[in-house]
Specification:
By secondary structure, the chain is of the alpha+beta class. It contains three helices and five strands, in the order E-E-H-E-H-H-E-E.
Length: 113
């Protein structure tokens, strides 16, 4: 099995829709650290699991300096951002989204999916 990971920093803002009062309901920003993990039993014709540039283009190129509420189809919590990122990348099985130094969400794709 081959494994790769790509780590990116993305500046972006969001506001959350919550069932309770929170300052996070106001538009605010983060410098997100997103780590994409991919795996494959076989390498592609170029000798890669997934091209690092493809990951950067699809994630960093799309989200950086954006309003995440307008870019992803879910309430843009760190957990939902992680799931969305995983759905965008071939062979992705895990994504970590660090919203701040002490707040990290992890999405692991179900093996049956």
């Amino acid at each position: 099995m081959y494994y790769i990971q790509k780590r990116m920093e993305i500046a972006g803002c969001h506001q959350l829709t919550l069932s309770y009062d929170s300052k996070c309901e106001k538009l605010h920003g983060h410098n997100w650290i997103i780590t994409v993990h991919c795996k494959a039993k076989e390498l592609d014709q170029n000798g890669m699991v997934v091209d690092f540039k493809l990951i950067k283009d699809r994630i960093h190129g799309y989200l950086d300096h954006g309003i995440l509420n307008e870019l992803i189809p879910y309430n843009p919590t760190a957990e939902n951002i992680a799931r969305w990122v995983c759905e965008q990348i071939p062979h992705c099985w895990k994504v970590e989204v660090q919203e701040s130094e002490n707040n990290v969400a992890v999405y692991v794709k179900d093996e049956e999916e």
